[in-house]
Amino acid sequence: MIKYSYLLLLTFFSFTLATAQNDIQDNEINKKIDSIVSLLTLEEKVAMCHAQSKFSTKGVERLGIPEIWMSDGPHGVRAEISWDSWDYAGWTNDSITAFPALTCLAASFNPNLSAQFGKSIGEEALYREKDVLLGPGVNIYRTPLNGRNFEYLGEDPYLASKMVVPYIKNVQKNNVAACVKHFALNNQEHWRSTINVEVSDRALHEIYLPAFKAAVQDANVWAIMGAYNKFRGQYTTHHELLTKTILKGDWNFDGVVISDWSSAHNTMEAAVNGLDMEMGTGTDGLGTTTSNHYDYYYLASPFLKAIQNGDIEESVVDDKVRRILRLMFRTTLKPNRGFGSVNTEAHHDVARKVAQEGIVLLKNENNFFPIEDKEGITIAVIGENATRSMTAGGGSSELKPQFEISPLEGIKQRYKKAKIIHAMGYHTGPSVYDNIIPSTLNQDSLRVQAIETAKKADIVLYVGGLNKSHLQDCEGDDRQSYELSYNQEEFISELKAVNQNLGMLLVTGNAVETPWLSNVNGLIQTWYLGSMAGHAIADVVSGDVNPSGKLPFSFPKKLKDNGAHFYGELSYPGDGTNQYYKEDILVGYRWHDTKKIEPEFAFGYGLSYTNFSISDISTDKKKYSLEDTIKVSCSVNNLGNTDGSEVAQVYIGKQKSKVKRALKELKGFKKVTLKKGDSKTININIPINTLAYYNESISDWEVEKGEYTLYIGNASNSITKKIKVRIQ
Ligand code: BGC
Prior knowledge:
The chain is an alpha/beta fold. The strands form six sheets. The chain has a six-stranded mixed sheet with strand order 1-2-3-4-6-9. It has a six-stranded mixed sheet with strand order 10-15-14-13-11-12, with helices on both faces. Among the domains are: 1-16 and 40-66 and 259-330, no CATH class; 355-566, Rossmann fold (3-Layer(aba) Sandwich), CATH 3.40.50; 610-727, Immunoglobulins (Immunoglobulin-like, Sandwich), CATH 2.60.40. It has 18 helices and 26 strands. The two termini are 33 Å apart. Helix 4 (111-127) packs parallel to helix 5 (157-172), helix 4 packs antiparallel against helix 12 (345-358) and helix 14 runs parallel beside helix 15 (488-498). It binds beta-D-glucopyranose. The site of beta-D-glucopyranose (BGC) has 6 residues, from loops.
């Protein structure tokens, strides 16, 4: 007991000491910043607030103030771009590790992996001499059509918050700033530069802002990127409510607000509503070729003139420069900053591990998977996605990996006894094929060839889904239909007709319609997995790794079953000017649950090669006060013959309420790894204040007293036990 209190005391003192030391350091840096600001001319200060090239801002040479260099994010450090155009600069030393897309990371439900992801990508950014990594993205998955969902962390604000914090903290441990994006309400790509989003305060605070708030308050993110769209009539990049009142006011954000590229639209708003650094392509229709076009940026000459005229106070630019200098002291000016590393074995291992844990087994009739490597069998790997590069395309997250193992390559390397044969089946454009260019690009011949190949095989693995082309999983616009394109539905039934032993690897960053589901015996959601894609896929297909990923968003059966689409065009994509988030707080599974619309695959769902049960579920008490924490305890049991991991999930709902409620919301989860036959008791703690809803009449959070129901299970639609508790 004495030892214990001594330890506690020691922890307390070292914590207070560390906090005190941090305060002293902050004070010293603030003093330095003040003295630097006093030495700068107005012109020099303004020059620090906007781009000087596509991905850098000016320093002040005479004072030794460095430039700031940035790079996309969020799945790897992007190849070098030219100074003044979007062309690649053509360097030969800028290839990197491509990590899996963030949807895959979210599907791992493993915050420790998120920390490893952040650490590794941060090391690569440092090696490439970047000060700011433009990611991660936390825009909530509202519609399966959003071309950019693959860059985000799914449909649930709690999951996104839990996953984004370790990513950011570990990027920043490298003295590289993370830049969380796109703040806020950039939930579709279609019309992203102009659309005005109308959404309730509740949905804003309960659904769309929590992951940003966690990034600021729990991860202390050093930069945040504005979004292209408008909200309540004003551009979000320099928004009075979003950037000024909430971000810099209520949340006390002390970092730098960076515009998205050309998302600023107005000097006065940018100046006073908190945009600190304007990046882009050219403004006022001046395009990219006008010389010195950066001078025309809203935070360039017009900003300088407005200060000189007295329309804007100089203290406004001083605040921006202070933040920018603070960012420098955290990154490029940090003593002993280190050099980072790139393409190390450790980074490749992290990429593979995230991929393995994020892959989701969606269907496994008669244990189709895993597929054993046996002499005498032939496996046909069919489909363009078996060989297509998925790090090329997609927009700003496009990567130049040192290598990218395709699904076909990974399977070939893993299967030594079975014979692996391949046919493409269809093509969507020859330029991005990964090494393999078919002898004919005639669609009919490709189809016939694939069917003949499937006939010869004992097992057919169809590798289909979407790709990173425009109007698929790609920045800049949305998908135009919920179905798989390129006639894949028909193709799957043709394959099934010639070979009953058909399984599918679904390569997407989004949900797709699955009317073909009964034609495949097994289905694995493989996401976009980066450098180690094929290895991770082969690990799971072969059973070397037992899948443990869970869906971070719902797969509706029909597009109309999704809340955003239920309300028609005004809700998505809007009328060209405005859109109304009519489903309000009922996003994703909240909609399916509350409206009793069964999804094809539910949020939190994912199968395993073993069977788990969750038992002995209890809470520490039945009645709680507002300051309490609910302690849920349960035993997770691996009942099968294979080691594996399961995610215990706790959802909470309130049936009787004075406000609209989702049936239930995720409030806690834990991933547990268990040897076959083993069990483990785990605890999941839920502080009562996390049950608050946003009360619009007082513009604040409030915990409603009364009865709540806890739902404990292994998916939003697989609940083992319900427990009622009271808050009083
Ligand atoms: C994207 C950002 C990206 C930026 C720089 C924009 O078009 O929306 O996410 O960081 O370009 O490439």
